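Quick one, C-alpha cells below:
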C-alpha cells in the first residue's frame, strides 16, 4: 500500500485527488495538508512529524511549490507535482536534488492523458511545419501565465527547429503583448483567462495552403486522476526524476 499525503487538499484539484487516493486499492490517504484548514495539517513538515508518508502530491500555489518540493526531496519524501509555475532553473535544481538524495520526483504540467497526447502530436507535427503558435485558455482564477502545459508543449516542439516564425515580416506591437509571449524557438504563446473555461489548449500550425490545429479541452477535473495515480505508482516503484507524463505513457 502506497501511503500518500495530499498538499492543497481543500482546493478543487486537491479534493478530487483525495477522493481518487481514497478509492484506489493500491493507495492509502496518509494525510491531508492545507494551509487554510483548521482540521488538518497546515504544512508538509507538520504532517511528516506525525504520519508515515511515501509520496506527497502537491496541488498548491506557484509561490509555495518550490519550497515544498525542496523540503520533500531533502527529507527523502517522494513528490508528485501538479502545481505549475516552476521556472526552468527551479526544475533543474529539483532534478539535481532528486538525484543527490536518491528520492523520486515527478513533475507534470498536465496529468490528462488527452492533453499529453495533444502535446506529443504537436511535437510530431513540428517536424513538418515552419510556423506555429499556441493559444491556451483557462478559468480566471489561474494565477500563472502562460500555463505549464503551453510551456512544456513549446519546449517539446522546439526540438524540431530553431524558429517557428519562418517568413514573418518585421512586427510592431501597437498594443504591448498583442503577439503574446515569445517562448522557445520563437513560438508565441497567447493566454486567455475567462469564466466558463477550465483548461483548453490549441496548437496552430501553418504553411503555404494549409493549416493544422491540434486542440484539447478539459471539462472535468476527474480527467486528471488516472494520470496522477499512474505517476504515484511510477515514482513509488522507480524512484527517479520525471518531467512530463508522456515519459511513462
Amino acid at each position: 500500500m502506497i501511503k500518500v499525503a495530499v498538499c492543497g487538499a481543500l482546493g478543487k484539484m486537491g479534493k478530487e485527488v483525495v477522493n481518487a487516493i481514497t478509492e484506489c486499492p493500491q493507495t492509502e490517504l496518509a494525510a491531508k495538508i492545507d494551509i487554510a484548514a483548521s482540521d488538518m495539517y497546515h504544512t508538509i513538515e507538520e504532517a511528516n512529524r506525525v504520519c508515515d508518508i511515501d509520496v506527497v502530491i502537491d496541488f498548491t500555489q506557484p509561490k509555495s511549490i518550490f519550497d515544498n518540493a525542496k523540503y520533500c526531496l531533502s527529507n527523502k519524501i517522494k513528490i508528485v507535482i501538479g502545481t505549475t509555475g516552476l521556472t526552468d532553473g527551479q526544475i533543474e535544481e529539483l532534478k539535481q536534488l532528486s538525484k543527490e538524495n536518491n528520492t523520486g520526483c515527478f513533475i507534470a504540467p498536465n496529468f490528462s492523458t488527452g492533453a499529453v497526447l495533444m502535446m506529443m502530436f504537436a511535437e510530431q507535427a513540428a517536424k513538418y511545419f515552419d510556423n506555429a503558435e499556441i493559444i491556451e485558455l483557462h478559468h480566471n482564477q489561474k494565477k500563472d501565465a502562460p500555463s505549464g502545459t503551453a510551456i512544456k508543449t513549446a519546449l517539446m516542439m522546439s526540438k524540431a527547429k530553431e524558429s517557428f516564425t519562418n517568413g514573418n515580416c518585421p512586427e510592431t506591437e501597437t498594443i504591448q503583448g498583442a503577439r503574446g509571449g515569445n517562448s522557445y524557438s520563437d513560438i508565441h504563446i497567447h493566454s486567455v483567462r475567462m469564466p466558463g473555461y477550465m483548461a483548453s489548449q490549441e496548437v496552430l500550425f501553418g504553411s503555404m495552403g494549409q493549416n493544422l490545429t491540434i486542440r484539447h479541452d478539459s471539462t472535468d477535473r476527474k480527467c486528471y486522476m488516472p494520470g496522477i495515480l499512474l505517476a504515484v505508482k511510477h515514482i513509488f516503484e522507480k524512484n527517479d526524476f520525471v518531467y512530463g507524463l508522456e515519459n511513462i505513457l
